[in-house]
Structure formats: C-alpha cells, structure tokens
Design goal:
There is one protein chain. The strands form three sheets. The chain has a six-stranded mixed β-sheet, sandwiched between helices. Strands 2-1-6-7 form a four-stranded parallel β-sheet, sandwiched between helices. The chain has a three-stranded antiparallel β-sheet with strand order 4-3-5, with no helix packed on it. The protein has 287 residues and is of the alpha/beta class. The model is unreliable at 174-179 (pLDDT under 50). Helices cover 42% and strands 24% of the residues. The radius of gyration is 19 Å and the shape is globular. A hairpin with a 4-residue loop joins strand 9 and strand 10. The protein has twelve helices and 13 strands. The two termini are 21 Å apart.
C-alpha cells in the first residue's frame, strides 16, 4: 500500500498548527498589500488582514508560487510514495490549474484534485482524503472519489457591506449607494466553480432566513428520507466578528438538530471580495 501525503492550501481554513496536528501540509496563500508580500497564517493573521482591509489598503490575492509548490512536493516525495493535492476551486483561482500542469512532470505520483471546493467545504475534502487514505485507497482512487462528489455541496454567504462588491466591480456604485440606504444584504452562492448572486434581502435577519431555507431545500431534495445527519455535514463560516458567528452557529444547530457542525473563519481569498461581517452556511455529502 502506498504511503500518501495530503496537501492543501490555507483557503481550506486549516491553519499551519492544525496541519501539523493532522499530519498534512498546508501551502500558505500569498497576498500583496500595498505591493508588500504577505503569507496567510505565517506573516499575515486574520486580525491583521481585517485591520488592513478596514484601512482601505490595496489588497490583491495571488497564488502559491510554482517553485514553492514544487519544493514542497519534492520534500514530501522523499518520505511518501504519492501526494494528493487539494487546492481551492479552479473557478476562483488559477492555483488549481497551475498545480495540475506541474503534476504532469511527476508520472502520476502527484494527484491534483479539482473538486471546486473552498473554505469549510475544502477543509472537509481534506479530512475525507485522509480517511480514504487510512482505509487503503490509492491516490488515484481518492482523486476520483473526491471529484465525483464535487457538486454534492452548496455554500451560501450573506454579505454585510456592499463596499467590496462595488470595489471589485460586481455591483455599480449607484446600486451600492441605494443598497446601503435600504440596508440590502445580498446572499451569494457557490455551487461548483463560481461565486454568484442568489438573493437580495432587507437586513441580516432576512438574509439568514433565506440561507436557512435554501440549505433546507437542498438537503430535502438530496436526502428525501430526511436523515440529514446521517448523510451530510453542516458547515458555517464568517468574516471578522466571532461573537456574531457563534450566534449563527447556535441558530444553525437549532434549525438542523443532530447534524455535525464545523465553524471556521471564511477564506481570506473570499473575504477580501466581500469584507467584514459576512456569514456563511454550507453542506457537504458524507462520503
């Protein structure tokens, strides 16, 4: 049986310390802030990121340098037979495509998983990969299973401020101005590759209600027997305020009793496009 290393990036929400505890490697995502290079969870903490975001600093996302990816793979292949590499969704970053291209030179020893995951759902893919490896699945089988499941998930994100959607060109300045006056809280969705609009709501209370209804509908359609806890994980994420996030977690547990719930900060690569105060909920199919 091959000895398999699991690799992901910090978009999974898995910290460097957690990676060490789990026995996986976590590539830190790079950010350029006022043209200065920072690495998530190494030279850039969550608190520092949101402070710089609030200061209107110029923040640009990037992808791990090919040389850093190769260096990590080469190091791991000294001790492991194969690698399963789980990057963030190919629809949200070119890091997946880059990794797939680099893996072509490794004669199958590196299997790059393109299963369109981000944040808490990407984290679950990493845990699934570890479990499958422990069960004796090959690197190729793990890749096949994870990619087969890629659309068996959904994420909804309620955005608290329109500032960053306007800044990124996703909405016009006029729409942002009107939306702010009317306390419009857009709900975004991720199903597969892209971050798309789902609904416009008045206030965060209605946004949360809309997300709860959307998740319930998806779970009922996917698992008509109603046994959600047996078949799916419930996941939540947030940007910034942990206190508000804990309230959200409480609401989710009341709405979906018995389901396992994981709460993590939302990926900074997503956070820089939606800003502080966002709340998210997701589900993923249990493999």
């Amino acid at each position: 049986m091959d000895k398999i290393a699991i690799v992901t990036d910090s978009n999974s929400g898995i910290t460097q310390q957690q990676g060490k505890e789990l026995g996986i490697s976590v590539l830190p995502m790079p950010f350029y802030i006022d043209e200065e290079l920072f690495y998530e969870d190494i030279t850039l903490t969550q608190e520092e990121f949101y402070k710089k975001l609030a200061e209107d600093r110029d923040i640009k996302t990037s992808q791990p340098a090919p040389g850093d990816v190769i260096d990590l793979w080469e190091k791991l292949l000294n001790d492991y037979d194969k690698i399963v590499h789980i990057p963030m969704s190919s629809g949200l970053s070119s890091s997946c495509e880059t990794a797939m291209m680099l893996a072509e030179d490794y004669d199958g020893r590196v299997q790059v998983v393109n299963n369109q995951r981000i944040s808490v759902t990407q984290r679950q893919s990493v845990l699934d990969a570890m479990k499958l490896a422990e069960e004796g699945k090959s690197a190729e089988e793990i890749k096949e299973i994870l990619e087969k499941e890629k659309f068996d998930t959904g994420i909804y994100i309620a955005v608290d401020t329109l500032k960053y959607l306007k800044k990124g060109g996703r909405i016009t300045p006029a729409a942002a101005a009107i939306g702010t006056v009317l306390s419009i809280k857009p709900v975004l969705q991720i199903h597969g590759e892209k971050l798309d609009a789902f609904a416009k709501t008045r206030g965060i209370k209605m946004a949360k209600k809309k997300m709860l209804a959307a998740i319930r509908k998806e779970l009922e359609n996917r698992f008509p027997d109603g046994d959600f806890a047996e078949n799916a994980y419930l996941e939540a994420a947030y940007t910034g305020d942990k206190g508000i996030a804990m309230e959200w977690a409480k609401e989710l547990r009341e709405e979906f009793p018995g389901m396992e719930l994981q709460m993590d900060p939302l990926s900074l690569s997503v956070a820089c496009h939606i800003g502080n105060g966002a709340l998210a909920v997701a589900w993923t199919h249990k493999i």
